[in-house]
Amino acid sequence: MFAVVTGGSSGIGLEIARLLAKRGYDLILVARRKNRLLKIKKSFEKKYSIKVVPMEVDLSNEKNCLEFFDKVKAYPIKVWVNNAGFGKLGRFEDIPLDQEVEMIHTNIIAAHIFTKLFIKEIKEGYILNIASVSGFQPDPMMATYGATKSYLLNLGLSISYELRRHKNKVYLTTVCPGPVRTEFNKVANTDFALKSMSAKRCAKEALRGLFNKKPLIIPGNDIKLLRVLSKFAPLSFILPIEYMIQTSKTRRDDVNKNKSTINS
């Protein structure tokens, strides 16, 4: 059996791939960094005695997504993880339009394409979509990123319900992590205002929920509590709090700089 993990070269994607390898899944790992993928292939094949197929693909291009799926659909795929994505921290008016369009294509369109094609053509197995707790409410200073995660969240919950109503053999789980210690801090030059979870723990909770066929997973009790409390708070309270959290991520010397991150 094979598992596909997009954004599988680092962070949550890499930890999910590692846990799947421990379960005996062969892997198709997708990322832009070929050298890192080759190192992971060598390490995983030696340690876990599995097969790893590394594929360098730019998922911000719709044609690439379709061609990639066409290449891999012949494999006996049981699990598909849509993890690839990135965010931009900064004021909406300051972030270059081309970067936001690329974000929308990577975070939304690629995941949408793979989710639909998996259900229509593979027809049986598990889909894991990595959204974010940012998807539950507006996210000033990360407006586009938060909106992409809202799309994934609502799409996933809707599809999961449809699949269960029609007794489909595909199970879809949406994961909404809070802050996770990945390359976000290093690449984006940011500090989280909230306590971060390890990528390993997030991956473990995500896969547990996936194989238990849960439609939604929010890793971490503190994030679950914040989610519950936010349901009762008005937007007039939530918006300034979210703005404060996001602006506090930037180091004092870099408050006005826009930075990016690979992965969710």
What is the compact description of this entry?
By secondary structure, this protein is α/β, with parallel strands linked by helices. The chain has helices at 11-22, 34-48, 62-72, 97-122, 143-165, 184-188, 199-211, 221-230, 235-247; strands spanning 2-6, 26-31, 52-56, 77-82, 88-89, 125-130, 170-175, 180-181, 197-198, 216-217, 259-260. It contains nine helices and eleven strands.
- Count structural domains: 1
Figure out the total of helices. 9
Rg (CA only): 18 Å
Shape: globular
Structural class: alpha/beta
Number of strands: 11
Largest sheet: 7 strands, parallel
Give the termini separation. Answer: 26 Å
Proper CATH architecture: 3-Layer(aba) Sandwich
- CATH topology-level name: Rossmann fold
Order of helices and strands: EHEHEHEEHEHEEHEHEHHE
Mean pLDDT: 89
Oligomer: single chain
Topology diagram in text:
Elements: E1 2-6, H1 11-22, E2 26-31, H2 34-48, E3 52-56, H3 62-72, E4 77-82, E5 88-89, H4 97-122, E6 125-130, H5 143-165, E7 170-175, E8 180-181, H6 184-188, E9 197-198, H7 199-211, E10 216-217, H8 221-230, H9 235-247, E11 259-260
Parallel strand pairs: 1-2, 1-4, 2-3, 4-6, 6-7, 7-10, 8-9
Antiparallel strand pairs: 5-11
How would you sum up this structure, described in words?
This protein has a single domain, classed as Rossmann fold. The longest helix is centred in the middle third of the chain and has 26 residues, at 97-122. With 264 residues, the protein is of the alpha/beta class. It has helices spanning 11-22, 34-48, 62-72, 97-122, 143-165, 184-188, 199-211, 221-230, 235-247, and strands at 2-6, 26-31, 52-56, 77-82, 88-89, 125-130, 170-175, 180-181, 197-198, 216-217, 259-260. It contains 9 helices and 11 strands.
